Target: HlyD family type I secretion periplasmic adaptor subunit
Amino acid sequence: MLKILKKRDNLEYEFLPAALEISETPPSPLGKIIIWLIFSILAIAIIWACLGKVDEVAVATGKVIPDGRLKVVQTLEEGVITAIHVTEGQRVKEGDVLIELDSTMKNVEVQSLEKSLETAKLERDLLKKALLGEDIGKLVDEALLPDEVKDNLLRLTQLKDTQYTTEQRSLSLLVLQYEDQYNIEQSNVKKIEENLQLLREKEQNLKALIETGGVEAADLKKIEKNIEILEKEEKTYKELYEADAIAKKEWTDKLNELELAKKDYETQKAAVSQEKTTLELNWKNVNDQIKIMEKELGIQKITAEQAKSRLDEAKNGLNKIETQRGVSSMDLIVENDKKITALEGELEKARKSKQYQTLTSPVDGTIHGLASNTIGGVVTPAEPILTIVPDGTPLIVEATLLNKDVGFVEVNQETEVKFDTFSFQKYGTIKGKVEYISPDSVDDEKLGSVYKMKVKLEKNTINVDGKVNNISSGMSVSVEIKTGKRRIIEFFLDPIAKYAKDSIKVR
Model:
């Protein structure tokens, strides 16, 4: 019925004038449907944006590195490459020769130091043997040095020894001369002392004679005793004569004998006086001689002491020469020991430096980066020549985390690692876990202040078209860390809110 009515209305519109036909014809319902459809979609989108949530992801770019980093091979000194024994990607073992540098100058330096060290040791040994008075010729002959060097060392040692020997011989002769002179002076002192002792004994004897009166005084006493006896006898003879007991002649004879004895007494008394005078004179002479000789003894002792001083001085000079020779030799030996120690250190340093001209692998691993492939190229100290990835070194991702994301990332947080080498839409990603975030930021020329982050990979392989490929060091990656969820509407409202907030602050 409706169709019939609609058909009838359409026929009526067709017979109307064109203008009326347009105005009287009702609009098509398709437009309304489209409008309502658009409004419905917008409403659904707004509702979905308000209710729906999406993951917030912090993205950090970085690369795969060995855990513990690469082993960088460098040289300590500048050198010229003479041989390269490895290529990029080659496996090496610890101790394998990698690169050789020109060691010509190092060889010359080592040989020069070895000769200098041998010369210093020979000089020290020569000084020791010369100090002990041993033969040094055999030691020089056995030395592994040029003949010219050996001759110079021998002459130098002999010259030093000759100088000391000449001085020692001269002083030894002087000591002998002073010893003879001292002995003579001491002998003179002894002689004077002996003579002085004799004079003193003589003086004591004369003094004793003077005190006792001498020989004549003793005879005088004898005469006195004889006179006493004769006087008694004369008296007795006189009494006997007076008693007519004896003849007068006997008495007169005794009397004459007494008179004669008295005359002898007077004569002896004069002799005693003369003897005393003589003894006193002799005693005085002897006493004067003693004083003179005592002065001579004092002078002679001074002379002897002077001779002794000269002798001691000469002996001290001789001892000083001998001591000085020993000390000088010991000083030279000590100096040589110091020189030897210094040369040994320099030689060890030169040998080490020579060894450093041959660069060897510090670990078992794979050559990762070869900085120079040019024979004759010059390398400088501390310049990285090549790098080695050690065997068995686990791989980790070192990434750069932006300053705005660091507050939302924590250690042990799960991550998704996308490899630039392998399309993640086709080959997927590898899961990881945040192991480390640097405590302080570092400056990046392009990104500003950033933080270093390390991510441990769940596995070190990725499936590419059914083939398992190993993840290798140096691959660039993007690390995605889920930091939370956010309503979709917020992505549209946040810029508006931020703009509105900033516009309010603007003057």
Notes: The chain has ten helices and 17 strands.
